[in-house]
Amino acid sequence: MKSSIVIVGAGPYGLSIAAHLTQWGLPFRIFGKKLDTWQSHMPAGMLLKSDGFASSLFDAENKGSLGDYCDHNDIDYHDTDTPVGLDLFNKYAKEFQRKFVPQLEERTVDSLDYADGGFLLTLDNGEMLRASAVIMAVGITHFDAIPEVLRNLAPSLRSHSYAHHDLGGFAGRDVTVVGGGSSAVDLATLLSEAQARVRLIHRGNHLRFFSEPKRGPRSLWQRLRHPSSGLGPGLRSWLCETFPSLFRFLPGNARLAIAKRHLGPKTAWIMKTRFAAGVEALLSQRVEWAVETDGRVELGLRHADGTQSVARTDHVIAATGYAVDLGRLGFMAPGLRSAIRTHANMPVLTGKFETSVRGLYFVGPAAVDSFGPLMRFMVGAKYAAPVVAKHVAAGFARSEKFHEALQS
Ligand SMILES: Cc1cc2nc3c(=O)[nH]c(=O)nc-3n(C[C@H](O)[C@H](O)[C@H](O)COP(=O)(O)OP(=O)(O)OC[C@H]3O[C@@H](n4cnc5c(N)ncnc54)[C@H](O)[C@@H]3O)c2cc1C
């Protein structure tokens, strides 16, 4: 058991931090199923919400962008005008991992606890290791949110959108998607295109789509009014991308409100006609109860005008998003979890992404309360990766000097 730096998670954040540490020559280990969220938990055929230029992983020398990959492989690419397909993104990201993080170990961390001023981890093969720093890059893996009203249905009758990648098994079945965000609209559309009969239930009275981006150069006024950013054009998005380090100084309620509302439930413009062609949208309706009847599901719906109706379906999918809650990280020892200062169940982080437990870091969606909506998107790794890698590297250098001094 040797002490080292450990990264938990092999999504865009974990891999970007690993690429930085490799290029700086620091010893570390990284665990996780590579790009698991993207390969197994997003619907096949999906188009990314992020523009091409904001759909990259990051290495310290900026040599591994999606644009470079497309260039080398003669693949049609545009920073903003060509939507990026999930399949292309996965091929690119796997190539990034092979090139920059070949040492990835596709293991799950089964437990994480304190030990002797550092951390003790157990892997799914039984190996135990000590670490002086642990970077948690677990993404959305543990945080799927299923509404209370659907929870008592059998898992064969209800699932979360996180459970689905290949939608072929739903062909010919009646499926109900609950939710009104882009996950819900994308999934419902792709299910209908996979020959399922699909309805979508949303409590709001309309679905929100981005407007089609104007192609070609933008005028100076447009660029000032709606500056370009990795979160899409707009002053607020630009502020989120440019000043993530200031977000944690806002009052707690304001942080929560911004994280919830900014870039909330909008869907890519390109899905609008495809959605309308195949999905029945039940708007201004909420699910009040759900029961199993003869192997199917009955959903009691309450309409905004107070009337009620019942929908019958073979399967309900909650496309109701993700809610970060450290309490759901079952592999972290309760003592360690409770030592982490939190706000609204999310870790409170320093400007270097460190928790109140020294040496323990969180990046990605779990860092939203401290660094804002940028952290919900992979482009946030461009900011997070060098900050975390530098801080961890400095800590590592200090401990090496300390050990050398002890030995001399
Ligand atoms: C339907 C959908 C569409 C999206 N589209 C976009 C988009 O177009 N653009 C964009 O920027 N963002 C998009 N997002 C958000 C996206 O999920 C995040 O940007 C991104 O995945 C965050 O990267 P990450 O590295 O933090 O986490 P993830 O990609 O979720 O990776 C987490 C990693 O942690 C690993 N892990 C978890 N627990 C353990 C453990 N105990 N031991 C070992 N490994 C573990 C997992 O296996 C996985 O490898 C989308 C999300 C959804 C749900």
Descriptive notes:
The chain is 30% helix and 22% strand. It is α/β, with parallel strands linked by helices and 408 residues long. The strands form 5 sheets. Strands 1, 2, 3, 4, 5 and 18 form a 6-stranded mixed β-sheet that branches. α6 packs across α10. The mean pLDDT is 93. The structure holds flavin-adenine dinucleotide.
Q: Which spans of ≥5 residues are poorly predicted at pLDDT below 50?
A: none
Overall, the morphology is: globular
Number of helical regions:
13
Number of strands: 18
Using only C-alpha atoms, the radius of gyration works out to 22 Å
Structural class by sheet pairing and helices: alpha/beta
Q: Give the % helix.
A: 25-40%
Beta-sheet strand percentage? 15-25%
Associated small molecules? flavin-adenine dinucleotide
Oligomeric state of this protein: single chain
Q: How far from one another are the termini?
A: 23 Å
Largest sheet: 6 strands, mixed
Mean pLDDT: 93
